[in-house]
Design goal:
- The protein has 18 helices and 16 strands.
- Among the domains are: 166-313, NAD(P)-binding Rossmann-like Domain (Rossmann fold), CATH 3.40.50.720; 315-447 and 460-466 and 493-531, 2-Layer Sandwich (Dihydrodipicolinate Reductase, domain 2).
- It has 533 residues and is of the alpha/beta class.
- The strands form three sheets. Strands 15-14-10-13-12-11-16 form a seven-stranded mixed beta sheet. Strands 6-5-4-7-8-9 form a six-stranded parallel beta sheet, sandwiched between helices.
Length: 533
């Protein structure tokens, strides 16, 4: 006897993300009506081919993973409705009797209307806020983080414009005194951006495109750098200030969060001032290269009850989040034995930017170290050894490297190797492989055209690192907005930050001393290591 052929309902029962949809089909010639069943993806709302390999390929795609995360807010329990607001059977929004068999109990409205009685829903529609993606947030029984909810002013009265006093302050046309034009307040949380010239263009682009926030201030001394990442029309209602006037933004009650993109050597004073002003802080880079100053920033955030989010953006990349889920939740790879990571930038940063960011270990390698520890679920490796070289003469003069190889061994026995470089000839190169006792997973390099060009000709379509991690920066920004509303706790704790920076400092110490560093017995002094650079 042959094996019984699987039905659509068998596939829907095997894969929880799939369902069966029923459609009434009427024949034009005979007028007969027949019932047609289709296998479809509930998150993407598209039909899926009835082939196991196609189903697995779709469920493993980044598109499905992103749509599945965006659909989670609608799975929360609805508030009880009053009889007046309960939809009647004759309402247009009611499901047809021939609706899908596996649809959720409530229908998602395409308009995403926000209730005017809820401050959270008024600040950000549920479909744009995104779900909780990390288990580190401590929530109460109602799904709300235990941190205090920020006090957001919903007043639409414009702030009085400041007079122009020489070149120390910029005012746009909408702010010019006597112009008769008031600054309209945007929908969403009011934010201030500090150090736009040093920030990632992917983050700056997300700030301008995100509908859940409104950029009220940009604090930057170089005006042309601000015009570089955004057009003048996008800053039509944003006030541009010099660094000396940062208190103007911090004293504005409409500003509930501050995005700090300044280098680590300049970020900590701004972070502390913003926290003391009662603002939540998103620090794109490290708050400080000194572990004691960074620890004081986290302590200040805890004492003030305001969120401090660090910019470890790679955790929010859809591909890496899928790997993390397979490794930690599904446990389909067995015991993890080895992880290999490749991270090469395109285009390469300037020497000035590398110097201000603290070098290759503090600006690049620290993110890959965080991803490795996150995937393994371990705090830090036992042993770390690094090799590197400066192919750029200017970097060699700064006692820094532009290409390093880092090897780490963890308490579980897993061995991780990191290939980090600030140079890539054609397009950014981001790859990662996780090998376990039951199999392996690979994150291949994502080329815009899907073509691997190994010749000497220029790449058909180069991909900068800002475009490669655009989705990661967007999700990280949305996570920060959710922390401002008290819906989530910051995904990165003080202890995790201190250990990650400590491991990066140990990697730099190993490269400079030419010997392995044992983290089980010796804790490297981060401050002492970074003073050499």
């Amino acid at each position: 006897m042959g094996r019984k052929k699987k039905t659509l309902h068998d596939y829907a029962a095997e894969f929880g993300d799939l369902g069966v949809k029923r459609h009434l089909v009427e024949q034009q010639s005979s007028g007969e009506r027949s019932l047609l069943e289709v296998l479809y993806c509930k998150a993407c709302e598209i039909p899926v081919r009835v082939r196991r390999d196609r189903i697995l390929e779709h469920l493993a795609s980044a598109r499905h993973y992103r749509n599945r995360r965006l659909s989670k807010p609608w799975e929360r329990k609805e508030a009880p409705r009053s009889p007046e607001t309960e939809p009647q059977p004759s309402s247009p929004g009611q499901l047809d009797p021939t609706a899908p068999l596996a649809l959720p109990s409530k229908q998602v409205s395409a308009g995403n209307h926000c209730s005017s009685t809820s401050l959270v829903s008024r600040l950000c529609p549920p479909s744009q806020a995104g779900p909780t993606v990390h288990s580190s947030a401590t929530l109460d029984g109602k799904g709300v983080a235990s941190s205090r909810s920020p006090s957001v002013s919903t007043s639409r009265a414009p702030v009085s414009g400041l007079p122009v006093l020489g070149p120390s302050r910029w005012l746009l046309a909408a702010d010019t005194p006597g112009s008769g034009r008031s600054r309209p307040v945007g929908v969403g949380a009011g934010l201030a951006l500090v150090g736009a010239a040093s920030g990632s263009r992917a983050l700056c682009r997300s700030l301008l495109e995100e509908s859940c926030c409104h950029l009220l201030y940009v604090v930057e001394d170089q005006r042309w750098d601000v015009d570089g990442f955004s057009g003048q029309e996008r800053l039509a209602h944003t006030r541009l200030l010099h660094t000396v006037d940062v208190d103007v933004a911090l004293s504005d009650p409409r500003v509930v969060g501050v995005v700090v993109c300044s280098p680590p050597g300049e970020a900590s004073p701004v972070v502390l001032r913003a926290l003391r002003a009662g603002k939540g802080v998103f620090c794109e880079k490290l708050p400080s290269l000194d572990r004691y100053i960074a620890e004081s920033c986290f302590d200040e955030a805890e004492s003030r009850g305001r969120p401090l989010v660090c910019g470890f953006y790679k955790r929010f990349d859809p591909a890496l989040q899928y790997l993390h889920k397979r490794v930690n939740e599904n446990d389909s790879l067995g015991r993890i034995q080895r992880i290999s990571s490749v991270s090469r930038l395109y285009p390469h940063p300037t020497v000035t930017r590398i110097k201000s960011s603290g070098g290759i270990f503090s600006s690049l390698a620290v993110h890959d170290i965080d991803v490795i520890c996150w995937l393994l679920g371990e705090r830090a490796p036992d042993t770390i050894f690094s090799l590197g070289h400066a192919f750029c003469a200017d970097l060699a003069a700064l006692n820094d490297a532009d290409s390093v190889s880092i090897c780490m061994k963890f308490p579980s026995g897993a061995v991780a190797s990191l290939d980090v470089s600030q140079h890539c000839s054609k397009s950014c190169d981001q790859r990662l492989e996780v090998h376990g006792s039951e199999g392996s997973l690979q994150m291949e390099n994502r080329n815009p055209l899907g073509i691997s060009d190994l010749s000497s000709s220029p790449a058909p379509r180069p991909q900068p690192a800002t475009d490669r991690f655009q989705d990661a920066y967007r999700e990280l920004l949305r996570h920060f907005l959710r922390t401002l509303r008290g819906r989530e706790a910051p995904f990165f704790t003080k202890e995790q930050y201190l250990w990650t920076v400590q491991v990066a400092a140990a990697a730099e110490q190993s490269w400079k001393n030419g010997s392995a560093v044992d983290l089980r017995s010796v804790a490297p002094d981060t401050a002492a290591v970074k003073t050499e650079a």
